[in-house]
Amino acid sequence: MKKIVVMGMGYIGLPTAAVLANRGFEVLGVDIDKKKIEAIKSGTFEMNEPGLGEALSSAIKSGRLKVSARPEEADAFLICVPTPAVAKGAGKVSDLSYVDNAAMAIAPFLKEGNLVVLESTVPPRTCRKFLIPILEGGGLKAGKDFHLAHCPERVLPGRILHEVVENDRVIGGLTPKCAKAAADLYGSFCEGTIFITDDITAELVKLVENSYRDVNIAFANELSLICREMHLDAREVIELANRHPRVNILNPGPGVGGHCIAVDPWFIVESDERNSKLIKTAREVNDSMPSNVVDEVEVALAASGYHPGNVACLGVAYKNDVEDTRESPALEIMFRLQKRGHNVRAHDPIVKECPFDLMELEAAVKGADLILLLVDHTVFKGLDLEYLTGLMRTPQVIDTRGIWRKQMEKKERYVNNAYVFQGGKS
Ligand SMILES: NC(=O)c1ccc[n+]([C@@H]2O[C@H](COP(=O)([O-])OP(=O)(O)OC[C@H]3O[C@@H](n4cnc5c(N)ncnc54)[C@H](O)[C@@H]3O)[C@@H](O)[C@H]2O)c1
Question: Domain check: are 401 and 270 in the same one?
Fold first, then answer.
């Protein structure tokens, strides 16, 4: 296998294309976003992913990575396009339109012996029921004339370059021969163990991984709501419960974001709603957290006498140390606060663009009535609350991530499950 087309130059496709090119493959990266294609070509494309800049520039300099708006003939096609969830009724369902378009684009270039790998996260049976009819449009038969496999991606943003190479992979082939063809390709750059299965199992495995995380986070979040009613510190309860040798409860937070954990469980619910009650409830618990945080803020501001107030929101990303704001609970909280008339000031040193004007830390905090910590970026952990609250009109801090517990130890009082810091020189 020499030439590989990668459909979608996003968080997954771009690093994968760079790694493949640096391992000696001839790679064509395809994206419908022409601006992105131009930026990659000219070396001006930026993504806050350690090591990506270097990997990309060496792949492009070597001449082995080219980018284009259109695919062309190749030995293998990797589909790495978005698969968001869209609202339907009270829940969400998968939007496979990007997979549809990517498959339509590659179908005319498929030749006998080719390999097509779907890396995008999809509901079970998508390869068979959705993808195959599109790919077979040119007359070739999947599993007979060309190979088809699902190889779900499980990288962690911030570590993508390492994990694309180091993680174990699950490869699900439509037939054992399809799985072998995909395993041969992935075996040429993956250093983890490759596990072979069928495509439907691989599709479900990916969803199960993220649903497992979602259910466990929901348990911690539900505990935080129970503790709020009881005026107890949820984090202390969890820490003490975790002293049991077989208990390992996660931390509560302001909600679950990102394009994976907040999305993928819905694909299981969509496939079998009758039997996925726990998974669905977990989604609902986690989705309810932003409104709970807003309630905490309302209580604190009402107590301060400044309502509506100035709220300095620290962190906009969906999780720590990334610039990605997709499905970010922080953004949802900020929109809700704005809707209630509060003056939302956004600060995030990692995020480059978001629907709010991003401010410098001190500008956001000066004259504020509340610091609302929404994301546990590493840089936030060392902030001096004594100093920051000294700049505020009302020195209150709600830490939804529990990163400032030590600093707050002597000054905290609990308003529900959040810490309200009564420090500073008001
Ligand atoms: N980002 C992650 O950490 C992660 C982890 C595991 C799985 N996934 C899954 O991988 C898939 C891709 O995610 P991502 O984060 O890379 O998405 P992304 O939004 O960062 O990138 C997708 C890219 O595909 C392009 N695109 C859309 N339609 C196209 C088409 N028809 N042809 C060519 N390009 C097209 C978009 O312009 C975009 O640049 C999704 O299914 C996601 O759930 C992502």
Answer: yes
CA–CA distance, 335 with 67 (Å, rounded to integer): 37
Contacting residues for 97 by C-beta, under 8 A, at least 6 apart: none
DSSP 8-state assignment for residue 274: G
Active site residues: 206, 260
Shared-domain flag, residues 178 and 255: no
Tokens for 195, please give them: 């596990």
126 and 240 belong to one structural domain:
no
76 to 123, 150, 153: CA distances (angstroms): 23, 13, 17
CB of 47 sitting under 6 A from ligand 1? no
**pLDDT band of 425, cuts 50, 70, 90:** very low
Kindly report, residue by residue over 93-120, the tens digit of the pLDDT.
999 999 999 999 999 999 999 999 999 9
Q: Tell me, yes or no, whether 23 lies in a domain.
A: yes
Please indicate, yes or no, whether residues 251 and 183 belong to a single structural domain of this protein. no
Same-domain status, 109 and 7: yes
Ligand 1 atom closest to residue 33's alpha carbon, by position in its atom list: 37
Q: DSSP string of 373-416?
A: E----HHHHT--HHHHHTTSSS--EEETT-TTHHHHTTTEEEET
Residue nearest to atom 33 of ligand 1 (CA): 31
The terminus-to-terminus CA distance of the chain in angstroms comes to 68
Q: Are residues 230 and 379 in the same domain?
A: yes
Question: Each residue of 132-174: pLDDT tens digit?
Answer: 999 999 899 999 999 999 999 989 888 999 999 999 999 999 9
157 ligand 1 Cβ < 6 A: yes
Q: Torsions phi, psi of 295, nearest 5? A: -60, -40
**Per-residue pLDDT, 154:** 87
CATH of residue 117: 3.40.50.720
**What is the residue range of 123's domain?**
3-192
> Is 202 part of any domain?
no
Question: So what's the pLDDT on residue 138?
Answer: 85
- DSSP secondary structure, 89-133, as one string: TTEEEE--HHHHHHHHHHGGG--TT-EEEE-S---TTHIIIIIHH
Instruction: Based on the fold, state whether residues 173 and 251 are members of the same structural domain.
Output: no
**Residue 198 lies inside a defined structural domain of this protein:** no
Specify if 316 maps to a domain: yes
What mean pLDDT do residues 254-261 have?
Answer: 93
Mean pLDDT of 280-291: 97
pLDDT of residue 183: 97
Q: What does residue 234 show for φ and ψ, rounded to 5 degrees?
A: -60, -35
| Residue with CA at minimum distance from ligand 1 atom 36 | 8
